[in-house]
C-alpha cells in the first residue's frame, strides 16, 4: 500500500526514493504524566527518521501493552488507541526498514518474555553482525521452562511470529537470559553487538537506553519536571518540553527508575558519529554533539560558495533539505537567495496510488516552478546530496522548461560512492550515479551547465567535529569498523532463516 512520505525532499519523484533513515526512538519515564501522548508527540517530531511503521509500548508497573501498525505516526494512532496505553513508562518507535522488510511483524517496539517480566525494545541503527547473533540464537535454541513451568524456546515470540529483524534477535537474546536480571543480561549482550545501535527499552518498572561504542546515531537524554526522556534527536525533547541534559555517551547503558538515573559503560567509547546526520538526516533544529544541524548546513553552503563559485543571478534550494546550504551559498557569494519552486507539501501524504497520467508528471506532482522568478535567470540550484541523479535531472529539465538561462548545480556533500551498513539505505552501489561517473559526466547526465560538490574536508569542517570522530564511509569508503563478508550483510539476511510461516531454519 502506498504510504505518505512526510516531508523528505528526496522523495520528489513517485517511486524514486532518496536516502532512507533507520528509525527514530523515544522513551519516557514519568509517573503522573500521560506517557503515551508524550511519546506520540516525540515520535511525531522524529517522523522524518522512519515512515513505514510506528509503535508505542507502555507499562503501568504490572503489565506492558504494545500498539503498532504500518504508516505514519498520525495514521497509526488516534485518541482512542492512545487512551488504552496507560502507565508511567513508554518506549516508541518509527521505522524505516534496514534489516528485514517493511511488514507489520517487523514493526517495533519488539516484545520478549524475560523470567522477571517483559522486555519492550526499540532500535535505531543497523547491526552488522546479525548473522553471528542468529547463530548465537540458534546455539541457545534449547527449551526453557519459566516460573509457571511453561515451556518456551528462544525462537518463540517475535522470531516465531515472523519478525526478521536484527532487533528481534537482540530482544530474543535479552529475554532468553533466565538467570540474570535484565540489566545484567544487557551488560553481557551489548559488547557482543557490532554496528550501529541506539536502543530504548523497558521492562515493567525500568527504562533503559544504550548507544553503540562508535555513537554512530544520535541519542540524547532530557529532563521533565516529573521524569526523564530519551530521544534520537534534541528536537524531540523540545516538542515535549523536556530540557536537554546530555547525550547518551558512546558505549553507555543508562538505567532510569524510581531511584533516578544510573549509568554504566559497557564498552570503551570510540566516537565515529555519522556525518550524514549533519548533511541531511537529522532535523535542522537538532543539535548533535554540540553542533546545531542548521548551522552546519549553512556553513556547508558557505564553503561550497568558496570552493565552487560561479556568476549567477539567483541561488535557490531544492526544497526543503537544500535550503540551509542555499542560504549559506547566497551569504558567501553575495548572490540573492530566492525560492524558485513551490512544494506541494501534502501530496506525498495521499493513500491514493497515482494514475499513469499523474505518475508521468513525475517531479511536477510535488514541485511547481515559479516561472516569473526563473525566466531568463542564471540559477544556482543547491541540494544536499545526489543519490541516483534522477531527481536532479528532472529538476534541471523542469527549470529549463520554465525558461532558466543557465543552471549550475551545487551539492553540499561529496559524491556518494559507497553503501552504508549502519542504518541508512542508499541505492545499491551500481545505482549510485557517482560510482561510475566523474563530476563532468554527472553534470552532462543531469543536463546542468556546471556541477560542484563540496570537498570532504569542507563538509567535515562545517560539522565542527574532529575528522577522526566522524564516520564518512559513504563518501570516503573508509569504514569505522571491520565488516563481515558480503554474504553475511544485507537487508534480507534474516528473511530466509526465520520465515513468517515456519520455525527457525538452521543454515546449512
Ligand atoms: S556510511 Fe555514511 S550514512 Fe552510513 S553511518 Fe557512515 S557517514 Fe553515515
Automatic annotation (TrEMBL):
Which InterPro entries does the record associate with it? GATase_2_dom, Ntn_hydrolases_N, PRTase-like, PRTase_dom, PurF, PurF_N
Give the pathway listed in the UniProt entry for this protein: Purine metabolism; IMP biosynthesis via de novo pathway; N(1)-(5-phospho-D-ribosyl)glycinamide from 5-phospho-alpha-D-ribose 1-diphosphate: step 1/2
Q: Which residues form the active site?
A: 23
Catalysed reaction equations from the record: 5-phospho-beta-D-ribosylamine + L-glutamate + diphosphate = 5-phospho-alpha-D-ribose 1-diphosphate + L-glutamine + H2O
Domain of life the protein comes from? Bacteria
User: What SUPFAM superfamilies would the database entry show?
Assistant: N-terminal nucleophile aminohydrolases (Ntn hydrolases), PRTase-like
Q: What class of enzyme is it?
A: transferase
- Which residues belong to any copy of the Glutamine amidotransferase type-2 domain? 23-259
What this protein needs as a cofactor is: [4Fe-4S] cluster; Mg(2+)
- Cofactor: how and how many bound: Binds 1 [4Fe-4S] cluster per subunit.
Q: What is its EC number?
A: 2.4.2.14
Which residues bind [4Fe-4S] cluster per the record? 274, 420, 471, 474
The GO molecular function terms of this record are:
4 iron, 4 sulfur cluster binding; amidophosphoribosyltransferase activity; magnesium ion binding
What are the BP-aspect GO terms? Answer: 'de novo' IMP biosynthetic process; purine nucleobase biosynthetic process
List residues binding Mg(2+): 321, 383-384
Q: Which UniProt keywords apply?
A: 4Fe-4S, Glutamine amidotransferase, Glycosyltransferase, Iron, Iron-sulfur, Magnesium, Metal-binding, Purine biosynthesis, Transferase
Iron-sulfur as a keyword of this entry, yes or no, is yes
- Please give the function described in this protein's UniProt entry: Catalyzes the formation of phosphoribosylamine from phosphoribosylpyrophosphate (PRPP) and glutamine.
Kindly give the PANTHER family that the UniProt entry links to this protein: AMIDOPHOSPHORIBOSYLTRANSFERASE (PTHR11907)
For this protein, the record's NCBIfam families field holds: purF (TIGR01134)
Task: Identify its protein family.
Answer: In the C-terminal section; belongs to the purine/pyrimidine phosphoribosyltransferase family.
According to UniProt, the name of this protein is Amidophosphoribosyltransferase
Name the source organism: Janibacter cremeus
Amino acid at each position: 500500500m502506498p504510504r505518505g512520505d512526510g516531508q523528505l525532499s528526496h522523495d520528489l519523484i513517485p517511486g524514486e526514493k532518496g536516502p532512507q533513515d533507520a528509525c527514530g526512538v523515544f522513551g519516557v519515564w514519568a509517573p503522573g504524566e500521560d506517557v503515551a501522548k508524550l511519546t506520540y508527540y516525540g515520535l511525531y517530531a522524529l517522523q522524518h527518521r522512519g515512515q513505514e511503521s510506528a509503535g508505542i509500548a507502555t507499562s503501568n508497573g504490572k503489565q506492558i501493552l504494545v500498539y503498532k501498525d504500518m504508516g505514519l505516526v498520525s495514521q497509526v494512532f488516534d485518541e482512542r488507541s492512545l487512551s488504552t496505553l496507560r502507565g508511567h513508562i513508554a518506549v516508541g518507535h518509527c521505522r524505516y526498514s534496514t534489516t528485514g522488510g517493511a511488514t507489520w511483524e517487523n514493526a517495533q517496539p519488539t516484545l520478549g518474555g524475560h523470567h522477571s517480566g517483559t522486555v519492550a525494545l526499540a532500535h535505531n541503527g543497523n547491526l552488522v553482525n546479525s548473522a553471528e547473533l542468529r547463530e548465537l540464537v540458534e546455539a541457545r535454541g534449547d527449551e526453557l521452562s519459566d516460573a509457571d513451568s511453561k515451556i518456551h524456546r528462544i525462537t518463540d515470540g517475535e522470531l516465531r511470529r515472523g519478525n526478521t529483524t536484527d532487533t528481534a534477535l537482540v530482544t530474543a537474546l535479552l529475554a532468553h537470559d533466565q538467570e540474570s536480571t535484565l540489566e545484567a543480561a544487557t551488560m553481557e549482550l551489548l559488547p557482543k553487538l557490532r554496528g550501529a545501535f541506539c536502543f530504548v527499552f523497558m521492562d515493567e518498572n525500568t527504562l533503559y537506553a544504550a548507544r553503540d561504542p562508535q555513537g554512530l546515531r544520535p541519542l540524547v537524554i532530557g529532563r521533565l519536571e516529573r521524569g526523564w526522556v530519551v530521544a534520537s534527536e534534541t528536537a524531540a525533547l523540545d516538542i515535549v518540553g523536556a530540557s536537554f541534559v546530555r547525550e547518551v555517551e558512546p558505549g553507555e547503558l543508562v538505567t532510569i527508575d524510581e531511584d533516578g538515573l544510573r549509568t554504566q559503560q559497557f564498552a570503551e567509547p570510540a566516537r565515529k558519529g555519522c556525518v550524514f546526520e549533519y548533511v541531511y538526516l537529522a532535523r535542522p533544529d537538532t543539535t548533535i554533539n554540540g553542533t546545531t544541524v542548521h548551522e552546519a548546513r549553512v556553513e556547508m553552503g558557505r564553503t561550497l560558495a568558496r570552493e565552487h563559485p560561479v556568476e549567477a543571478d539567483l541561488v535557490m534550494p531544492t526544497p526543503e533539505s537544500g535550503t540551509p546550504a542555499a542560504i549559506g551559498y547566497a551569504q558567501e557569494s553575495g548572490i540573492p537567495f530566492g525560492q524558485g519552486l513551490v512544494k506541494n507539501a501534502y501530496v506525498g501524504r495521499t493513500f491514493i496510488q497515482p494514475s499513469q497520467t499523474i505518475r508521468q508528471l513525475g517531479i511536477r506532482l510535488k514541485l511547481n516552478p515559479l516561472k516569473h522568478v526563473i525566466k531568463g535567470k542564471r540559477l544556482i540550484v543547491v541540494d544536499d546530496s545526489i543519490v541516483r541523479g534522477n531527481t536532479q535531472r528532472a529538476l534541471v529539465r523542469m527549470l529549463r522548461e520554465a525558461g532558466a538561462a543557465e543552471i549550475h548545480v551545487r551539492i553540499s556533500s561529496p559524491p556518494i560512492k559507497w553503501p552504508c551498513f549502519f542504518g541508512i539505505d542508499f541505492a545499491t552501489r551500481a545505482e549510485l550515479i557517482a560510482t561510475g561517473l566523474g563530476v563532468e559526466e554527472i553534470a552532462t547526465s543531469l543536463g546542468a551547465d556546471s556541477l560542484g560538490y563540496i570537498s570532504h574536508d569542507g563538509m567535515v569542517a562545517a560539522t565542527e567535529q574532529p575528522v577522526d570522530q566522524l564516520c564518512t564511509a559513504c563518501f570516503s569508503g573508509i569504514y569505522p569498523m571491520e565488516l563481515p563478508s558480503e554474504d553475511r550483510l544485507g537487508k534480507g539476511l534474516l528473511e530466509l532463516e526465520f520465515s513468517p510461516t515456519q520455525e527457525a531454519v538452521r543454515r546449512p
